[in-house]
Amino acid sequence: MFSSFKLTSAEREALNAISTRIHRPAKRRIYAQGDAGNYIYRIRSGAVRLEHHLKDGRNQIFAFLWPDDMFGNLEGGAYHTSAITLVDTYLFQISYSALKDLVQIHPRIQTLFLRQALDYAKMAERHLLLATYPLVVKRLAGFLLECSRQADFFDRGSNILTLAMDRKDIADYLGFAIETTSRTLKELEDMGLIQRLSAQRIRIDRDRIGAII
Predict the structure, then answer these.
(1) So what's the pLDDT on residue 130?
(2) What's the pLDDT score for residue 5?
(3) Which site among 19, 90, 173, 197 is 20 to 30 Å from 164 CA-CA?
């Protein structure tokens, strides 16, 4: 766990000791908005969406999370979003109370979790930029480019991106109708920027997509 962090052996062992490995199949809820926040999570493999339930009954997708991402932010002691797996997903689950005790013994670990919080803020910033592009085609092109940065879902040899989410998820994330997702995918294909191989598999031209956004 935390293989990208430069931990001492003692810090690594201490973190592993309070971490539980769990598995959730695709389309399963990890926690619901408003649940008491007892755990923080880190993705080992798979993908997760965070969504906020609005009072009018709509769901607003706040973020898509990938391997090594951490989530479980609290607001008033409760989760302020729901977390749902997109595909078969393996997670590390860490008790907030155990983590609080741990940083008293290993204070440097708190800095590592702060780094994760900053990464979370950057992710929210990228989402805002994507969702506010005036042209819908640029929103979707930018989104596909973001997804292609995930090594578990993009094959650089064939340039094939396997989408973890469905078209409704994409529409909710980018702020347009599901019909717009399908129409804009066709537009990108007509422009020669992508080739749709199936509902989830798309060959993309990353260089040309990058040039239009």
Answers:
(1) 81
(2) 53
(3) 19
For tokens 């999570």, the residue is 41
Within 8 A by CB and 6+ apart from 64, the residues are 47, 48, 49, 50, 86, 147, 164, 165, 169, 173
Q: Which two tokens stand for residue 183?
A: 């129409």
Angle between helices 108-131 and 136-147 (to 10 degrees): 150
Strand partners, 42: 70, 92
Name the β-bridge partners of 48.
Answer: 65, 85
pLDDT recorded at residue 4: 53
Q: Which of 170, 158, 151 is nearest to 66 (CA)?
A: 151
pTM: 0.86
The dihedral built from the CA positions of residue 3, 50, 151 and 125, taken in this order, carries a sign that is negative
pLDDT of residue 31: 97
Q: Contact at 8 Å (CB) between 49 and 2?
A: no
Q: What is the DSSP string of 57-79?
A: S-EEEEEEE-TT-EE--EETTEE
For 13, phi then psi, to 5°, come to: -65, -40
Please count the residues of the chain.
213
Structural contact between residues 48 and 86, judged by C-beta atoms closer than 8 angstroms? yes
Contact 45, 152 (CB under 8 A): yes
* pLDDT score at 137: 94
What is the reported pLDDT for 181?
A: 94
Blockwise average pLDDT, block size 10, the chain, 213 residues: 65 89 97 94 95 82 90 87 97 93 86 71 77 89 95 96 96 92 96 96 96 85
